[in-house]
Design a protein that fits this description.
single chain, 278 residues, mainly beta, 9-stranded antiparallel β-sheet, 7-stranded antiparallel β-sheet
Amino acid sequence: MVTTRTIQTVLPDRRVIDDGDMLLFRALPTESHDSVGPFVFVDHYRSASIRGIGDRPHPHAGIEVISYLLEGSMEHRDSMGFRDRLNAGDAQWIRAGRGILHAEQPFGGRHGLQLWTNLPPAQKFAEPAYRSWRAAEIPTVDLPGGTIRVIAGLAAGVEGPMQLATPTTFVHARLNSGATIELPVDAQAELGVYVLDGGLIGPSGSIGPGAFALLTNGDTLPLTAGEQGVELAVLGGTPAEGQILFSGPFVMDSAENLLRAKQDYLSGKMGRLDGVPF
């Protein structure tokens, strides 16, 4: 029996930066929600200049870091020796685990998503790892009225190439004006829809950019675009395990592990990049 997902609640858009050069929305975490599936951090940014948000070396630990570029390009480098260039439509995955330092240098204006997923308690101090996928490696499905790209998880019968620590869904969709699609999704996943551009028609009208709509359970997700069409991301998966404790770029399951991550960073155990941390 097919069960349809509906919008349960809409998290209001939060503009962290809006200064004419950069617009940055932060959908997670909020005071009421610290996760949706394994996702514990959702940043959506658009910059007109070469200015970056992570262009200086900085650490991460206890999480997986996902970058998805919609426009522009950037160079990645990190303390493990990985170096890479991402262009529009490319995706990147970093298992920070016990700790890694990285920097993302933009080559001009950019538009994209920066996402963190929570590592389960048993993997908080796993060895760091890196992988990226070119746009052509990410499957695209044409549907009546729109297209979807499946970066991770299973949607519309297609599986994305990005494999994370726990079952994770990450789908990028574009719908034409007034179009409706029925998207088959994982019935067991905890899911939300983040609006990137345009408008998504919800029960109380159109939901605009920066809004994160949390969904009820079900195996089919109907999506309807407003007059300007809509561009969105479907995010979620298996709910995060254990406590979720933030301390800047570190996300751990206990105060003791947060302290350990800070000490590891300061002592150089996460490696060094451009003289950081010293």
